[in-house]
Each structure stands twice: as C-alpha cells, then as structure tokens.
Amino acid sequence: MAVVLLIMITIALFQVPMLLRQKQYRELLGFSMIWLIATVYSLMVVLRVPLPGAVDVLEYIYGRIFELLASNLP
C-alpha cells in the first residue's frame, strides 16, 4: 500500500506544480479528479476489495440510461 501511495504522490508532485506554473487551472481540476479516482482504485485493488468487472459497470450504467429513456417515451 505504501508503494502505491508513494507512486501516486510522486506523480502529483511532478504534475501539479507544472500545471500551476502554466496557469492551466481546468487541466489541474481534470488531473486532480482522475488522480483521485486512480488513487482510490489502486488502493482498493491493493487491499483486495472485491470490485465489479468493467462489463458489469457498463451494463449497470447503460441499463439505467435505457430505463430513463424508456420511461420518457410515449
């Protein structure tokens, strides 16, 4: 777990100052959101938390979208 945190912190230490120096605030926001998701996912994998497969996640998302669309049809 410490290795994952060290790698993720190292990535942030290289990227964040560069984005701030270049005043790329939208990119910094996007980077931060993706970095946070990647960090949480990596830690969950290292801690062996049972996670759904990619296909299961996509089926759930598209299922909800299709249900929403179907309920709005006449």
Number of helices, counting only DSSP H or I runs of 4 residues or more: 3
Helix content: over 70%
The secondary-structure element order is: HHH
Overall number of structural domains? 1
Cα distance, first to last residue? Answer: 52 Å
* Low-pLDDT residue intervals, each spanning 5 or more residues: none
Q: What is the average per-residue confidence, as pLDDT, rounded to a whole number?
A: 94
Please compute the radius of gyration using only Cα atoms.
Answer: 18 Å
Folded structure, characterized:
There is one protein chain. The protein is an all-alpha fold and 74 residues long. It has one domain. Helices cover 81% and strands 0% of the residues. Helix 1 (2-21) packs antiparallel against helix 2 (25-46). The longest helix has 22 residues, at 25-46. The chain is flat. The protein starts with a helix and ends with a helix. The model has no long low-confidence stretch (mean pLDDT 94).
List the helices and strands and how they pair.
Elements lengths: L1 H20 L3 H22 L7 H18 L3
What tags apply to this protein structure?
about 70 residues, mainly alpha, 3 helices
What would a concise description of this structure say?
The protein has 74 residues and is mostly helical.
